[in-house]
Amino acid sequence: MQEMILLKVGELALKGLNRSTFEAVLLKNIRRRLKPLGEFAIQNAQSTIYVTPKSEDVDLNEAVERLSQVFGVAALSKARVTEKRMDAILKEAPLYLEDPLLAARTFKVEAKRADKAFPLKSPEICSEVGGCLLEAFPHLKVDVHHPDVTVMVEIRDFGAYIHAGSLPGAGGMPVGTAGRAALLISGGIDSPVAGYMLAKRGVELTAVHFASPPYTSERAQMKVVELLRQVACYAGRIKLLVVPFTEIQENLREHCPQDLFTILMRRFMMRIAQELALENQCQALITGESVGQVASQTMAAIACTDAIAQMPVFRPVIGMDKDEIVTIARKIGTFEISIQPYEDCCTVFTPKHPKTRPSLEEVVKAEGAFEWENMVQRAVAGAQAQMLHAD
Ligand SMILES: Nc1ncnc2c1ncn2[C@@H]1O[C@H](COP(=O)(O)OP(=O)(O)OP(=O)(O)O)[C@@H](O)[C@H]1O
């Protein structure tokens, strides 16, 4: 009898008429994520997706790991499928569940009967399977409140499924169902988390990174590539645009008041990112800003940055504490990459005492000190694209 994976869909099960469109995107994302592992049969029925490897040598644990990162999946279980007959279920359950049940002291059985034609009702299934498992593993005791193992028997369209409980899925909505946005990504902790959070709501990401060689190194750029590959485990393929930013930064340093350097630099980032966003069919920008974290993230500074934006700017970590952001960064595997000590263009030329309450008037006046329109166009035209994915 075969081992496979059952996936329960989350929020998209609540969708009405367009639900099939959401499901089609989810199935495409699942196929894409599993492709490097081998061939799978994938079926979809009754808010459940059935993933069955077509050959014995597929690494099912790796498949579970990958599927736990696909947005739109609420829960997943590795399961053994048998024929929809009680004798088959009673034969398979003790064999398949031997490892978890030998390690447990208590258990309970739950049954779901999605196929109402099955002759036994759920409580009868539970009592027969429970009795059979107690006989096979006499050390076990039943505990219906806090069992070490919950044995599930699900009678569904394509067979009977036996498993030892579910793992949480990534939740959210399938990536590709909520449009596209441009993520301004630095090498820091916050912006990869910001990208992850919008991808979780179904938004496809295009990433924009500003690099200022020779002040920033090739290695700093590689760090951003590494971060995005990790985010791509959840967000799917990400197009990265690396923007040459040296000319603008050098001119800012030369012509503008030192204490406004950071806020002016942010406004140029917005101008350029916005043009690239439009060229790449993005409807919004995403940043990793969080109020009060640094001088450029005061409300006054954010107001000056936003004055440039002609599209929505999403800041999903805006109200989060650093340790809350770090918890997510650790969970999604970006934290260890982010803390590698490579410079970012934000940290070169940074003034010692940046103004925390710049006024829009003084910022606009400071920008008048040099001719920057062509520089912005050169930066946009000089953006280098590469496509990144998890593997
Ligand atoms: N080199 C860069 N390229 C693209 N976007 C950037 C770059 N540097 C900063 N940003 C954007 O500006 C935001 C604020 O950057 P800042 O350096 O002030 O904060 P941070 O706390 O270091 O953020 P992060 O941890 O994301 O780097 C970042 O979250 C990111 O969205």
Automatic annotation (TrEMBL):
<protein>
    <recommendedName>
        <fullName>Probable tRNA sulfurtransferase</fullName>
        <ecNumber>2.8.1.4</ecNumber>
    </recommendedName>
</protein>
<keyword id="KW-0820">tRNA-binding</keyword>
<comment type="function">
    <text>Catalyzes the ATP-dependent transfer of a sulfur to tRNA to produce 4-thiouridine in position 8 of tRNAs, which functions as a near-UV photosensor. Also catalyzes the transfer of sulfur to the sulfur carrier protein ThiS, forming ThiS-thiocarboxylate. This is a step in the synthesis of thiazole, in the thiamine biosynthesis pathway. The sulfur is donated as persulfide by IscS.</text>
</comment>
<dbReference type="InterPro" id="IPR054173">
    <property type="entry name" value="ThiI_fer"/>
</dbReference>
<dbReference type="InterPro" id="IPR003720">
    <property type="entry name" value="tRNA_STrfase"/>
</dbReference>
<keyword id="KW-0784">Thiamine biosynthesis</keyword>
<dbReference type="InterPro" id="IPR049962">
    <property type="entry name" value="THUMP_ThiI"/>
</dbReference>
<comment type="similarity">
    <text>Belongs to the ThiI family.</text>
</comment>
<dbReference type="Pfam" id="PF02926">
    <property type="entry name" value="THUMP"/>
</dbReference>
<keyword id="KW-0547">Nucleotide-binding</keyword>
<feature type="binding site">
    <location>
        <begin position="209"/>
        <end position="210"/>
    </location>
    <ligand>
        <name>ATP</name>
    </ligand>
</feature>
<feature type="binding site">
    <location>
        <position position="288"/>
    </location>
    <ligand>
        <name>ATP</name>
    </ligand>
</feature>
<feature type="domain" description="THUMP">
    <location>
        <begin position="61"/>
        <end position="166"/>
    </location>
</feature>
<dbReference type="InterPro" id="IPR050102">
    <property type="entry name" value="tRNA_sulfurtransferase_ThiI"/>
</dbReference>
<dbReference type="Pfam" id="PF22025">
    <property type="entry name" value="ThiI_fer"/>
</dbReference>
<dbReference type="Pfam" id="PF02568">
    <property type="entry name" value="ThiI"/>
</dbReference>
<keyword id="KW-0694">RNA-binding</keyword>
<keyword id="KW-0067">ATP-binding</keyword>
<dbReference type="GO" id="GO:0140741">
    <property type="term" value="F:tRNA-uracil-4 sulfurtransferase activity"/>
</dbReference>
<keyword id="KW-0963">Cytoplasm</keyword>
<keyword id="KW-0808">Transferase</keyword>
<dbReference type="InterPro" id="IPR014729">
    <property type="entry name" value="Rossmann-like_a/b/a_fold"/>
</dbReference>
<comment type="pathway">
    <text>Cofactor biosynthesis; thiamine diphosphate biosynthesis.</text>
</comment>
<dbReference type="InterPro" id="IPR049961">
    <property type="entry name" value="ThiI_N"/>
</dbReference>
<dbReference type="InterPro" id="IPR004114">
    <property type="entry name" value="THUMP_dom"/>
</dbReference>
<feature type="binding site">
    <location>
        <begin position="184"/>
        <end position="185"/>
    </location>
    <ligand>
        <name>ATP</name>
    </ligand>
</feature>
<dbReference type="InterPro" id="IPR020536">
    <property type="entry name" value="ThiI_AANH"/>
</dbReference>
<feature type="binding site">
    <location>
        <position position="266"/>
    </location>
    <ligand>
        <name>ATP</name>
    </ligand>
</feature>
<feature type="binding site">
    <location>
        <position position="297"/>
    </location>
    <ligand>
        <name>ATP</name>
    </ligand>
</feature>
